[in-house]
């Protein structure tokens, strides 16, 4: 009965729905495990996180009475050697809060053309903060001071003023490349001399720190504000942290409330954040090794252009010269490998603690088989 009803309704399905069903049947038929390389946000809370969440002491964080949130915030401030820090729901909100505190409507924000804050945050810098993005073309996400200096508006009463500079480390769209610390700190020092605040979108700053074997506090010391995500490679189910001076963080708390991000008994999430900070940074080295392994395993086919030497952290971006990225992604999805497009010809794969080195070898094997005909 079930099958006859469903076979009948199959006839009424559209082409893409039929294709999806065929893909599912192919994957199931081959009994292949799904290997999900779409993002490092896909990790699920570990047993120790869930236990910490269950046992967390909580209070109303809008009254600043949640002891676990306080503990997490103290932890983050100490790690970054800053006066204070704030727990916020997401990296997107963290960036927006910092933008709102640093700038005035009508000002310009200098950022990279491929930055997350410009491309993937719903245009909130304009629609909510009322500022104009001043986008610069960079060499793989690295903006140097010379090009920033040229983009700073002269101080004329009839001109938009430059209100903020934003850098991103690691740079997601360039395949998780790391900003050399000295270059970033040089931009910070010059920005300070020019009287312009500078914010770091450090969503994956611990990946950068792992790659450089440096300390996050030293790497970020001259930024006026830094946001980093607990919910990516560090493995927490939600949340980002902003670090800065006590005065700045107090303004951020007001902005968080304005945006509807004031939360209550949120210690249950902060507890997962504490575990993420305790355990997460130490294991990123495995994600990096897996990303390198993946690049090394898929290099060599005419259907994939990848440079394993440019894989620094947990993101592998490669070109698919003989097909569109959507066609490539459709083909590997039929073998239960999931990834995301960067654009028409580029694909992104991200490693995280949900995938082991065996999974990576398996994924690379299926990808090689998939592209062999190309
Ligand atoms: C570089 C960068 N910044 C900010 C964000 C936003 O973080 P969230 O997804 O928590 O809003 C992301 C998310 O992928 C990111 O990659």
Secondary structure layout:
Layout: H1 2-11, H2 15-29, E1 35-36, H3 47-55, H4 67-79, E2 84-88, H5 91-102, E3 108-112, H6 116-119, H7 124-127, E4 132-136, H8 145-151, E5 162-168, H9 181-193, E6 198-201, H10 205-212, H11 216-220, E7 225-229, E8 240-244, H12 246-258, H13 267-298, E9 315-319, H14 325-333, E10 337-338, E11 340-341, E12 346-350, H15 357-371
Parallel strand pairs: 1-10, 3-4, 3-5, 5-6, 6-7
Antiparallel strand pairs: 2-8, 7-8, 9-12, 11-12
Helix pairs in contact: 3-13, 4-13, 5-12, 10-13, 13-15
Entry keywords:
7-stranded mixed sheet; alpha/beta; binds pyridoxal-5'-phosphate; 374 residues; single chain; globular; 3-stranded antiparallel sheet
How would you describe what is shown here?
The protein has helices at residues 2-11, 15-29, 47-55, 67-79, 91-102, 116-119, 124-127, 145-151, 181-193, 205-212, 216-220, 246-258, 267-298, 325-333, 357-371; strands at 35-36, 84-88, 108-112, 132-136, 162-168, 198-201, 225-229, 240-244, 315-319, 337-338, 340-341, 346-350. A seven-stranded mixed β-sheet has the order 2-8-7-6-5-3-4, sandwiched between helices. The protein is globular, with a radius of gyration of 22 Å. The longest helix has 32 residues, at 267-298. With 374 residues, the protein is α/β, with parallel strands linked by helices. A hairpin with a 4-residue loop joins strand 11 and strand 12 (346-350). The protein binds pyridoxal-5'-phosphate. Pyridoxal-5'-phosphate (PLP) binds at residues 90-92, 95, 116, 168, 172, 201, 203, 229, 231, 240.
